[in-house]
Amino acid sequence: MLPLVFLPYRIRHSLRSGLRMALASSALLGMGVQGVVAQIVDDGGEVANQQLNLPDNVTVFGKSDPNVRKATAIINGRILTGTDIDQRLALIITANGGKVEEEEKERLRVQVLRNLIDETLQIQEAAANDIRIDPAEVQQSYERVAANFRLSPEQFEAYLRTQGSSAASIKRQIEGELAWSRLLRRNIQPFVNVSEDEVKSVVDRLNAAKGSDEYRIGEIYLSATPENRPQIIANARNIIQQIQQGGSFPAYARQFSEASTAAVGGDLGWVRPAQLPPELAQAAAEMQVGQIAGPIETVGGMSLLYVMDKRKVLTADPRDSLLSLKQLSVLFPKGTSTQQASAKAADFAAAIKEIKGCGQANEVGARIGADVVDNDNVAIRDLPPQLQDILLNLQVGEATPPFGSITDGVRVLIVCGRDDPASANAPNAEQIQAQLEEERVNKRARIYLRDLRRDAVIEYN
After folding, report:
1. C-alpha to C-alpha distance for 11 and 221, rounded to whole angstroms
2. Cα distances (angstroms) measured from residue 1 to each of 209, 427, 437
3. In angstroms, rounded to a whole number, what is the distance separating the alpha carbons of residues 393 and 414?
4. Cα–Cα distance between 281 and 287 in angstroms, integer?
5. Where are the beta strands (DSSP E) in 47-144?
6. Where do the PpiC domain residues begin and end (predicted)?
7. Checking DSSP bridges between strand 322-330 and strand 409-419, what pairing results, if any?
8. Where are the domains of the chain?
């Protein structure tokens, strides 16, 4: 993967990812219009009054609460039904393993409606520019999604129905992603230019930073004001709790983050501390891979950080070594006790010690009744952290200690070959230019979507 260390903070986004922007407005989650008006005129109200020309004494006629009204909207004549919201919400809940509290579902429902409105505006704008996506192309993308679940399109459709969603919901999202991406390539990308001097400057900065630490960071950014700060902090802590209980960080980032990286699950890519605001850089340096921290106060709001990985800039990482492995595994019969499992694991470990290289693995496996599976081109980085440190120190022909559980059985990995990573080099000029162009396209895309929202005629029922 091309390192993204040279891209500025909070604007990373890949058009090639095929994911649309999901610019959240979580500062208003769980708050009615009355609450928002009260915040505008409270404390720093003088400035707000000057900007919005608000009366000194505000009387609210009637009650408008987006959390209790029907989640139905008409966007420039296109109807969104409650079923549309329910089915898209079901996809998010499924992505989180179904572990979403009822209160959280209501927050997500509001955000799903906003996302569907943006999606509708993008499809409509593409159509206005004579860009229409062939249903056959949507079907091909849908089939690839199904293949990721190791299901046929028909099986995947049945699975979605059991989860309360539908194939139509995913296909509509695919259509929106393809239409918006194609619109940006036609109306924005041709007018974006990057000079040779800019590319050279990036290469120079990369080479100067060689050997320093860099982190692959995920971020959920929530904007906040002094008035709504307590509510935003509460929202942030609730998100952390949901993720710690098994929720998907990328899924929550897509729905709640107000940074453009929401579209790629909050992934900032590889960044050095100097590229982050000081408060985020300090937090990242103190975190271990896999940890989540926050809420951290930043300019204009709060951030939740997730450290996905760590490495040295332009330095070969042993964890990028590719291994050829043989896996020997023995399953335990149903009802096996812990004592029986321990005894069988000990026998298994004794048999493994007899193996002198991968050439004997199949023979020993057959003798002890173990399944033997070959795995080639396995990156150490992609294995569980507990195994990475062990495999880094193994020579060809050596095996890991037995590992597993009563449910999964016991297994070992034998190293049959290792291809060490080549020395890391800076990305070439063409790669850097492409990334800088993407950055500028994304900036203009955010403005484009903002203008579409402003010009839209939206009716709520």
Report:
1. 12
2. 19, 10, 17
3. 12
4. 10
5. 73-75, 78-80
6. 212-309
7. antiparallel
8. 15-192+449-460, 207-315, 318-419
Each residue of 139-179: pLDDT tens digit? Answer: 999 998 888 888 899 999 999 999 899 999 989 989 998 99
The pTM of this model reads 0.53
CA angle 381, 405, 353 (to 5 degrees): 75
Which amino acid belongs to residue 424? A
Contact criterion met (CB below 8 Å) for 261 and 445: no
Q: Are both 207-315 and 318-419 of the same fold?
A: yes
CA 255 to chain centre: 10
User: What is the assigned CATH class of domain 207-315?
Assistant: alpha beta
**417 strand-pairing partners:** 324
Cα–Cα distance for residue pair 112/86, rounded to 1 Å: 9
From the list 258, 251, 261, the residue with the least C-alpha distance to 223 is 258
Spatial separation of the C-alpha atoms in residues 35 and 86, rounded to whole Å:
26
CA distance 36 to 379: 50
Where are the strands (E) in 380-439, listed by range?
A: 403-405, 409-419
In the block, which residue shows the tokens 């199949």?
Answer: 362
Which three-class secondary structure state does DSSP give residue 302? strand
pLDDT in tens, 116-134: 888 999 999 999 999 999 9
Cβ density class 100-117: b for 16+ within 10 Å, e for less = beeebebbbbbbbbbbbb
Listed in sequence order, the residues at least 6 apart from 282 whose beta carbon sits closer than 8 Å to its beta carbon are none
Burial class (CB in 10 A: 0-12, 13-18, 19+), 423: exposed
Residue type, 114: R
Angle formed at CA 231 by CA 230 and CA 237, multiple of 5 degrees: 90
Report the amino acid identity of residue 332. F
Q: How large is the C-alpha radius of gyration of the chain?
A: 26
CA distance 228 to 27: 7
Give pLDDT tens digits for 33-69: 222 222 223 344 444 444 555 555 544 444 444 444 4
State the CATH architecture for 15-192+449-460: Orthogonal Bundle (1.10)
Calpha distance 306→295 (Å, rounded): 11
Over residues 134-141, the mean pLDDT reads 92
CATH of 318-419, one of 3.10.50.40, 3.10.580.10, 3.40.50.970, 3.40.50.620: 3.10.50.40
The answer to whether the beta carbons of residues 104 and 112 sit under 8 Å apart is: no
- The reported pLDDT for the residue numbered 18 is 31
Residue 383 is given by DSSP the state S
Type of residue numbered 283 = A
Classify 388 in phi/psi space as left (phi over 0), alpha (psi -120 to 50) or beta.
alpha
Assess whether the previous peptide bond of 318 is cis (omega < 30° from 0).
no
